[in-house]
Structures are given as structure tokens and as C-alpha cells.
Amino acid sequence: AKYAMKDSQTMNIKALYHRPDSNFCFPLSDHEITIRLRVDAADHFAKVELVYNSKYLIQGQQLVKTMARAYDDGTFAYYEITLDL
After folding, report:
1. What is the set of domains in the chain, with CATH numbers?
2. pLDDT value of position 5
3. Contact 38, 22 (CB under 8 A)
4. Cα 74 to Cα 29: distance, rounded to the nearest angstrom
5. Are 40 and 12 in contact (CB under 8 A)?
6. Is 77 buried (19+), middle (13-18) or exposed (0-12) by CB count in 10 A?
7. Taking Cα atoms as reference points, which of 85, 77, 75, 84 lies closest to residue 36?
8. Burial of residue 47, with CB atoms counted within 10 A of its CB: 0-12 exposed, 13-18 middle, 19 or more buried
9. How far, rounded to the nearest angstrom, does the alpha carbon of residue 23 sit from its chain's CA centroid?
10. DSSP annotation string for 23-68
């Protein structure tokens, strides 16, 4: 299944994957965490953003960080970001 995005881009929505309790979200240290997102390797995006909240900020405030395309195994591509806690 393809999903239409703005600017006439499409993506394979069935390839989109993330799990918060696996190798898609893991600590690097006591103060850093890496978050990974899987997409179809054929899908290329101008920007992939992580939108999140900090439990220490006022409720409703959202933080936005740009994820980098970290690697591609031929079938899937993986975007990652490391956040300071």
C-alpha cells in the first residue's frame, strides 16, 4: 500500500515500523537514548522528524528533531536520532 504525502511523494506505509521496547529504541548511556525508524529502502524523504514531549517540560509543548538516514540494507532504510535526556 502506498500513502500519498505532500509534494506528490508516496511511501510504502506497510514498511513503516518502530517499537519502543526493542532495538528501535535503546539507551546509549545514562543520559542518551537512540530512536530508530524503519521505512522502505526505495522511499527517500527530504526530511524525517521526530516529534516528542519531555516529561520535564510543561504539558503540550512539543520538541522536534530531524532524524538522519543511518543505513540501508537493500530492503529497508533506517532513520536514527540520539537524544540527550
Report:
1. 2-84 (2.60.40.10)
2. 59
3. no
4. 30
5. yes
6. buried
7. 77
8. exposed
9. 13
10. TTEEEEETTEEEEEEEEETT---S-EEEEE--TTSPTT--EEEEEE
> Which residues, in sequence order, are CB contacts of 13 under 8 Å at separation 6+?
1, 2, 3
**What is the predicted pLDDT for the residue at 25?**
95
- Sign of the CA dihedral 32, 33, 39, 45? negative
Task: Give the bridge partners for 82, in sequence order.
Answer: 34
Name which of 66, 7, 3, 6 is nearest 39 in CA terms: 3
d(CA 66, CA 58): 22
Residue 48: band (very low, low, confident or very high) from pLDDT cuts 50, 70, 90:
very high
Compute the distance between CA of residue 22 and CA of residue 85 in angstroms, rounded to an integer.
Answer: 18
pTM: 0.83
